[in-house]
Every structure is written in C-alpha cells, then in structure tokens.
C-alpha cells in the first residue's frame, strides 16, 4: 500500500501499531486524515460510535499531530466548532498540486472546525470564515492543508462530518487529489475528479 486514510477518533492503538504508521509515512508513504482524525490521539475525551463521549482520556500521541501537520493540543475556548451550516471554502494556495486548477472556492455544508493548531511544517491550502453568528471565532480558519513528515506526505481535511458532507463535489475533488498527492507526491487527477460518473 502507498496510502493510509484515517477518520478515526477512538482509543490509542498501542506502541507497535503507532510505530508502524510513523515508520510507514516517514519512509515515504502517504496519510490522509479526515475530519475527526484531527481530534483523535489529542489527549481529549476518547469518542465512541457516533462521536459519543466515553469519559476516558489517554495521553496525547504527539507524533500523530506531527504527521498530520496539526490538531487540537488543547481544548479551544469556543468548543471545537459552531453550529453545522453552509459556508464557502476558499483556496488560499492555488499553486500546490492538490489545489492547482481547482476553482477559487466551493460551498460546504459541514462543521467548521476552529482554533486548531497548524504546525510550521504544514501548508494551508484552503480556509473558511468562522462566523460568530454560527458560534464561530470571527476569523478565517484552516480547512485543508498538506504536510511533510520524514520522506512522506499527509493531507488533512477538516471537512467530512458525515456521508452527506462527503457528497460535496468540492470535498470529493480535493480529497481525491489530496490522496493522490499523499500517496505519490504528484497529482494527475483532473479538477473535476469529484464529479466523474461511473461508466
């Protein structure tokens, strides 16, 4: 395999599995972290099915944030996101292979994560304005980014809370192109990769 895709926010995996993923990505492979995967391994309450709180906390896995390029090392002052709503996602880096050729923006209906920490190694591709009217911060928040870890690559999307959010064409195009980049270091998929209909 060339790529691991994670949307996981449950208990820690144990040393052997965690070291295996660190070695996999560090040696030149790819990681895609979707939505709640930024919360996982952060030292916050472990979540169960359907994001139910378990009351269990475990030590943070700092290397996971280093692989992904950021996360929530501490609980944000305004929760992790405001009310679910529709908002424009604006590409702020149009030169990265993932975003090159994509439109300037797309509208997502999702949770808008806010007050995340983005590490200096990460490259933010897209942001969204977190409107105070929906419980936001009044700031542009990072939504899509890439990161390098050793010889490997990671792509993170804060979008994708549930299947309906993942049906968004902008989400799909960016995810597919981000996955290809994380796996190979290049992007060959077209800008309309998320709209292709099965033959």
Please describe the structure with a list of short key phrases separated by commas or semicolons.
199 residues; alpha+beta; two-stranded antiparallel sheet; 4 helices; 20% helix
Write the layout of secondary structure elements.
Layout lengths: L2 E4 L8 H12 L3 E5 L10 E3 L5 E5 L4 H7 L1 E2 L13 E7 L13 E6 L6 E2 L4 E7 L10 E10 L2 E6 L5 H4 L2 H16 L15
Parallel strand pairs: 1-2, 2-11
Antiparallel strand pairs: 3-4, 5-8, 6-7, 6-9, 9-10, 10-11
How many extended strands? 11
Radius of gyration: 16 Å
Strand content: 25-35%
Q: Tell me the number of helical segments per DSSP (H or I, 4 or more residues long).
A: 4
Low-confidence stretches: none
């Amino acid at each position: 395999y060339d790529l691991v895709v994670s949307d996981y926010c449950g208990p820690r995996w144990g040393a052997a599995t965690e070291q295996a993923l660190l070695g996999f990505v560090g040696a030149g492979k790819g990681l895609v972290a979707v939505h709640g995967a930024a919360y996982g391994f952060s030292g916050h309450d472990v979540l169960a099915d359907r994001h139910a709180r378990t009351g269990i906390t475990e030590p943070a896995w700092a290397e996971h944030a280093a692989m992904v390029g950021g996360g929530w090392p501490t609980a944000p002052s305004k929760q992790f996101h405001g009310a679910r709503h529709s908002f424009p996602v604006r590409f702020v880096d149009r030169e990265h292979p993932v975003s090159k050729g994509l439109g300037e923006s797309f509208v997502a209906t999702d949770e808008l994560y806010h007050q995340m920490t983005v590490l200096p190694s990460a490259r933010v591709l897209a942001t969204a304005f977190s409107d105070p009217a929906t419980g936001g911060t009044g700031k542009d928040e990072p939504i899509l980014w890439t990161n390098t870890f050793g010889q490997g690559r990671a792509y993170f999307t804060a979008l994708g809370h549930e299947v309906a959010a993942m049906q968004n064409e902008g989400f799909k195009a960016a995810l597919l192109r981000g996955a290809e980049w994380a796996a190979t270091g290049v992007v060959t998929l077209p800008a309309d990769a998320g709209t292709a209909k099965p033959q």
